[in-house]
Write the structure tokens for this entry.
Amino acid sequence: MEAKPKLLSILDGVSVVMLLIATGMVFFYAPVEAVMGLVQKVFYFHVAAGWVGMLSFLTAAIVGIILLRTGDRKWDIVGLASVELGLVFSFINVVTGSIWARPIWNTWWTWDPRLTTATIMILIYAAYLMLRSGIEDPDRRARFGAIYAILGFLSVPLTFFSARLFRGIHPVVIGSNQPGAEGQFDMTPLMLQTFFFSLITFTVIFVDLLWHRVRLGRLQDRVEQLKLKLNV
Amino acid sequence: MGGEVKIATSPSKAVIRKPTSFYLRTVWAIVWKDLAAELRSRELLTSMLVFALLVILIFNFALELDPRARFNAASGVLWVTFAFAGTLGLNRSMAMEKDRGCLDGLLLAPVDRSAIFFGKALSNLFFMLIVEAIVLPIYSLLYNINLFNPGLIAVVLLGSIGYVAVGTLLASMAVQTRTRDVLLPILLFPIVIPLFIAAVKASAGFLQSLEMSEIWPWLNLLIVYDLIFLAVAFMVFDYVVEE
């Protein structure tokens, strides 16, 4: 068994420290928002988790293209790892969003474009896992997974556009002011710093977890091969 | 482009290009095979059709609607019906190929594999359009709504093309898995949601005779979806049938 790389151990430490600092910044450094109060603090990790969710699904699609071009199955492990992580982070994104929406929109859930897209995205990648679990042949599993990851990632922006043609109420904090959004606010510099620090923190955590998951996937492969050797 | 075109850069690298008409003939041969098989067995069309009528019937009881609300819900009910019946047809059409190794036979033929995809997609499209052509008048009759609207028919055509493009690709993946019968809708529906939203809104727009400027965004979305997914399905189909 390969030893745990030193860089990975360092990355572990960095992620933990950064997460602690980010949490500290959210609670003690960033000011309390004037209208929404404490519940606004959920925003920092909410957006960061959503960003990492998108990033991992993008990774899965890109890795899928590489896999189809090269036919090398090691990319399949990376693809599966990113989809699993993407699902976890999207789920965090949706749950934190609901916590915020309850006091601000006075409902846990609404069929806003972003919320709709997030739900459908989670369903697509849940289907991805179901597709994989139904295929025994590892090469075919890798190819089908890659194709589905590409198709899924292509349909997500289209879903978003189609849902956006219905008018939404989700606030757009970054970029333009959108009329009709509920719970809009402008970030002060301290908030902005906290926000970007959370984004970077979550990205580092994503890289760290992805690395761990890929190592785990490789070990899984090894175990499977050893089992085959022993049984036959 | 008639005849065989030889591009001889060097004697050893002489490339023989098969002309376009050969490709089209291959596509047509597959469509013809499916139509002939269907003409004899009639199992696919009848099951799709009866299923579609049952769905409309169930909707009638599920949404006990007053005439006004029924008019507003018409496009949604129609597209749900088409989607369900379409899944049934797609599953059956690909399962037929998988049974008794028909697909392997097709793959052994010395033809471009994307021609097989387009052939299957075209015959699936054909079946879906037949079902739609029967369901639409029956729906008009049962619910007293005039569905004979050129715009609506264009939307039905555009929506069916996109649905069948993705559906044929995913069905050919689903039949190669252990859970083949249940997997197709789970794979297909989340990916065709943008198509559905656009098709439902565009159909509703035509039925309520809205301004064209309000319908165009949805039509554009339908066209973009069709183009993107036809192109992607064409590119990746090789990897689906590869052994």
Q: What stands out?
A: Residues 55 and 163 of chain A are 21 Å apart (CA to CA). Chain A is about 75% helix and 0% strand. The interface with chain B takes residues 68, 120, 123-124, 127, 130-131, 134-136, 140, 143-144, 146-148, 150-152, 154-155, 158-159, 161-163, 165 of chain A (CB under 8 Å).
